[in-house]
Amino acid sequence: MEVGTVYGGYYGAKGYEGVRKEEKRADAGFAGKVAEKGAVSPKDMTLDEYKAYFNEKMNSLYTHPSQRNMNDVIDITDAAYKRMQTDPEYEKKILDALAQNKAVNFGGNIPVIAYMHIDDTWEKCYGYTQGMKENVGYSGSSSAKKPDAGREKKARQKELLEEYLEKRAQAKRQQQELLDEKVAKAEQERSRLAKAWSSKQRMAAASGAYESNIMMETAAGGEVK
């Protein structure tokens, strides 16, 4: 399974192991390099530079105020980044889809979590929302905001992402266990067939020796008792 990037309103661009200070500094460095190069073509960037370039574009998209307290998670695979880096039309298609999602007005009720998976083909992309909750602090005006809403959102996003990553790790472990079980069964069957073949060969050899002995005794005029 190819490891990509999980992106959320709290975490920013980050790897599956979580946000680390070193990664934040690295991302800032990539963005700085891109800025220094000026109008450089995405195709000429390294993959890390392109990720910073694309994430900056994604961050600049308009987000409807009703989504301010929503836990949004965007999962982008490395294959998707590589496809968008070399295919401007696909990049535009993904950005248009993200822009459309971010512009939705959820009003007084928002999903508990909004998830979007972006892959290297449109057919493999999908998204969903889960649960609904009261949009505390939203009254149609961007000025209405619960004082500690930011801290609550950060804590909730961290909890949801950790749960998501744990489920992915658990699924991977289960797949490995199934694979190990299949390999063990195949080895047992191979061993059984090898033993059966060896036994058959020994029986055939014994039968041949017995028949040969009878023929020799008959030819010599002996009597088989």
**Overall geometric form:** elongated
Give the overall average pLDDT. Answer: 77
Multimeric organization: single chain
Number of helices in the DSSP assignment: 5
Order of helices and strands: EEHHEHHEEH
- Termini gap: 71 Å
Structure classification = alpha+beta
Describe this structure in words.
By secondary structure, this protein is α+β, with helices and mostly antiparallel strands. It has a domain at 5-157. It has five helices and five strands; from the N terminus they run ββααβααββα. The protein has helices spanning 21-37, 47-59, 78-86, 88-102, 149-219; strands at 5-8, 12-14, 71-76, 109-118, 126-134. Strands 2-1-3-4-5 form a five-stranded mixed β-sheet. A hairpin with a 3-residue loop joins strand 1 (5-8) and strand 2. Helix 1 (21-37) crosses helix 2 (47-59) and helix 3 crosses helix 4. It is elongated.
Question: Which descriptors apply to this entry?
Answer:
225 residues; alpha+beta; elongated; 5 helices
Layout of helices and strands, plus pairs?
Layout (H helix, E strand, L loop, with lengths): L4 E4 L3 E3 L6 H17 L9 H13 L11 E6 L1 H9 L1 H15 L6 E10 L7 E9 L14 H71 L6
Parallel strand pairs: 3-4
Antiparallel strand pairs: 1-2, 1-3, 4-5
